[in-house]
Amino acid sequence: MMEIDAVITWVDGDDPKHRAKRAKYGSAALQNSIDKAADTRFADLGEIFWCVASLNRYAPWLRRIYVVTDEQDPCLDAFLKRNFPEGHIPVEIVDHKVIFRGYEDYLPTFNSISLEAMTWRIPGLSDCFIEFNDDLMLLKPVQPDDFFTSDGNPVCYGKRASVVLDRMTRLFKSGRGQMKKVTTKGSHMNGALQAGHRWTYFRLAHCQKALRRDFYETWFTAHPEALVRNISYRFRDADQFTSQVLQYMTLHDAGCCELRSAADELFFFQPKRKDGYFARKMDKLRNFKGSFACFNSIDLASAEEQAELVEWIEKKLDVRMTV
Which domains are present in the chain? Predict the structure, then answer.
């Protein structure tokens, strides 16, 4: 059985020290930009506990969980001992300084795209690893072949899309002024361009990403300028590329990546200010049969809605978030 690690990028944006750091490096306009540095991008409601609990409950075969942080610690020990008294997947906290060793000039960073270009540099990381944001979790038991083929090739959850069509759409959504709007589609298209694809790209589902550490090591060693350019932005920027798309499309061209639809596997939950929206989403969640979930910007939900969701998650994972 192949060794597979999990990597989770996490930040507590409510930490005063982190807030002060963001204020020091980002202008007021930048910090009010929802696509780059608004508070909701860094808010922490304890999602890291949901994510880690789901890995222990539904993917206990993982070798290790690495939590990548910026001079912070989510303090998972007591939670794991309380909810998994018979043992749990080992957890290691990895600071940004570790993965940016040799590139310290680009710290601090508040940029998920930059971090995802550097997580492969975690010391001791297995060649096969699965990358999570802290707002992602598993919903039912999964197996290694949900993420990697028997040959160790990564499974990409997403679909092929048209660059021309989505570039035209993006033009209508560009922000005014000097700051271009950062979109997921835009960074995905930039990643495809890095892989040599001008007309189509892989639009990745907002779920975990199965990746090869050794691919990144080989590619970024051969293209050091691309790595430096991509991590040089402290906040998300429209000129950056998604490293995961670069990997998937390059490997897919070589017959070493499997593209799968996430349509029936991913439940995406993002609060919206529409009457009855939250209740309808909760009803769908209770009946969802897929494997993956993303709870995006849950801080924007009301306190009552947040409490209802946490109660559902605790029951689903059979854990207690607090003593």
Answer: 4-317 (3.90.550)
